[in-house]
Here is the input.
Amino acid sequence: MIARCLAGTLLGFPLAAALLALLLHLLPGHGEAFLIPVLILFFPLWIAFMAGAYMFRSGRRAWLVLGVANAAAFLTLWAGRLAGF
Here is the structure.
């Protein structure tokens, strides 16, 4: 139980940040007009990842899935930066 809690808390935070950063980059003008609403969305999204971590059968699976999701999100951000987006 504690492993799922820690996975959701520790891996949900950067995952929420990375997904919202991707959202800002997809919005027109890099989302400058949407910065405050996106920042307000950060905490509900983080809480959703924390709650969603309890849906996994084990803590190991929660760490694995959230870790892979983090890697994919940050690789997408990195690739977008290299491509000039």
Q: What stands out?
A: Residues 2-83 form one domain. Helices lie at 2-26, 35-52, 59-83. Residues 2-26 form the longest helix (25 residues). The chain has one domain: 2-83.
